[in-house]
Amino acid sequence: DCYGGYAKMATIIDQERAKDLPVIVVNAGDEFTGTLWSLTYAGKESSTFLNLLGFDVMTFGDHEFDKGPQVLADYISQLNFPIVGTNTVPNPSSPIFNKFSKSAIISVKNKMGQEVAKVGICGWVTPDTKFTSSPGPDINFADVIPSVTACVAGLNNQGVKIVIGLGHGGINDDLVVAKSVPGLSLIVGGHSHTFLYSGRPPKLSVAGNTTDTPLFPYPINVQNDFGTTVPYVQAFWAGRYMGRFTVTFDAVGRFKNFATTQPILLGGSVSESNVPEKPSVADLVQALSGPVDALNGQIIGSSTVVLNGRPYLQDPVTGPGSAEINLGDLLTDAMVWKVAQNPSFEQQFGPNVIAATNTGGIRVNVPAGQLTRAQILSVLPFGNVLTIIQMNGATLRSAIEFSVGLFTPTYVGNQFLQVSGIKFSFDPSKPAGSRLLELVAFNPIAKCFTPVDAAATYNVISNDFTANGGDGYSMFATSKKLLATGPVLADVLAEYVQNFSPINITDKLSLLDITTSNRINVITANNPFVSQKTCARKMRRSLFEAL
C-alpha cells in the first residue's frame, strides 16, 4: 500500500481542474534523482509524467544537475512547459545555455479557455549547488536576493502584477527571500523537505495514530520589509503529499487571503487520505517499471559479515548489547569519503574528517553476501541527504553528551549517534549530562586521535534531519551550515560499497569486545575506562591552525 506517485497526483490535478477556479500546477525542483527510476531513465520518466499531468512551470532543484549539464539539457528539451532558473548562470559553452528562462509568464485561464490573469514566475536554486551537485565548470549560481529582485522588477515592467516565486533554497533561505524582495506575491518552496500543516495531519494508517509531524503551519505568512504579507508553502518530500491552496490577490498583486486548504496526503487504502490512482497514468507506470524492477535487484557489491543496522539490546542469555553498529561505522566512513572526493570543499572550509548520523535513520540489518540497491534503500529509506555543519568543540561535546543521555542497557535510542573520525567513552551509570568521559577526534595531519578542544573549530558531516535539529539536536540546528543539501545518503553508501567491496568490517557483537573498531566505549565494571587518545605529543589547538 504505497504513498505518493504520479498516478495519485493526476487524480488530484484532475479534481482541481474540474472546479470553477483557474488552476496553476507548479514544481519547485528535484525531480529526477535519488530513485531507481532516475537511475534507469535519467530524467526521461520525470519529463514524461510531468508533461502527461500538465504541469505549467518548474524551477531547477540542485539535484537536477546531478548527472551533469548534458543530461539536464536533454531533460529540458523533453519538457513541454518552461523551466525557470533566475539565478542560474551558464557560460555560452554550457549545454544548457539558452535552454531555459530567467522568468516566465503564465496565462491563467478559466474553464472556458478565457484568460483571467497573467502570473509571473521567478525560480531560484541554492548557490550551494556548485558543491552539492555536478553542474560542471561552465555553470555558476548568482546570489539569490539580487537575482530575484531583478526578476520581479522585470515582470512588473511588463505589466505583470502577480509574481510567484519557486524557491529551491530551503525554508530558511526562502523565508529571507520572502522578507527581502519587493513585489513577490507568494513562494512555493522546496529543497529542505519541510512538512507544513495546520492542525492534525491525516493518519498514515486508520488503524493507528501515526502521522507525519509538521514543523510549521501551512502556509507561513511572512511579513516582508515593505508592509505586505507573502505566504510561503512547501509540500514535504518525494511526492508523499501534494500541496494545494486557493489564494486571492488584489489588483496590484498583493496577497489578500488564503483559503483553509492543506497539503493532501497521497495515501493508500489503509491511510486516512486514500487517493485513488488515475488508471491511465498507473498503466504507464506499470509499463515502464520493468527495467526499474531489474535494477532493484542489481548487485552492487558484497559483504563478508552481517551488517548490523540496529543496536543490540541486553539479553538475559547473551549479555550486554552494543551501542556501536558496524553499519553505522560503514555509513559514516562513506560520508567522510564522499566529501573527500571534492578537494575544493576542504580548501574552502577546512578538514572534513568527522561524521555523525542518528541511529534511527539506519533501519535494518543486512545479511552477509551479495548487496543489492534494494537493500541499500531499505537501510536508508527516508531520502535524507548529506549535510555539513561547523561548530566549536564545546558544541560537539554537548551533542555527544546528548547522544548518550538516554542510553540504558536495554535502550539505545534513535538519537544515538554513529560516528566516524571521533571516538568517545561514556559511563551510563552517571546522570544524563555528565556521562561523557572522553571525546577524541582524528587529526589528519598527525594521523592520530587527540582530545576535542572546546575552543577549536570542527566540521561535522551529518544528514539533513539531524543537522536541522531532528531527534533533539538543537545544537546542530544553530550551527553554521557549510553544505545544506548534499548527495542522497543512500547514493553515497551505494557508491562506497561499489568502490570498496567486499566489505569486511568486524561485526561488533558485544560491549565487552574491545578488539573491533571501538569508536564508542560504554564503560562498565567489566570494561573499565582506557583513554583512546593516540597522539604522542600535544597537538595544535585547531585542525585549521595545523593546515
TrEMBL record:
- Extract the GO molecular function terms from the UniProt entry: hydrolase activity; nucleotide binding
Any one biological process term the GO annotation gives:
nucleotide catabolic process
Q: Residue ranges of the Calcineurin-like phosphoesterase domain? A: 2-194
What InterPro entries does its record include?
5'-Nucleotdase_C, 5'-Nucleotdase_C_sf, 5_nucleotidase/apyrase, Calcineurin-like_PHP, Metallo-depent_PP-like
Q: Give all residue intervals belonging to the 5'-Nucleotidase C-terminal domain.
A: 322-477
Q: Which keywords does this Swiss-Prot/TrEMBL entry list?
A: Hydrolase, Nucleotide-binding, Signal
Q: tRNA-binding: present as a keyword of the record? A: no
| Keyword Signal appears in the UniProt entry | yes
The record ties this protein, via Gene3D superfamilies, to: 3.60.21.10, 5'-Nucleotidase, C-terminal domain
Q: Which family does it belong to?
A: Belongs to the 5'-nucleotidase family.
Q: What is this protein called?
A: Uncharacterized protein
Tell me which species this is from: Klebsormidium nitens (Green alga)
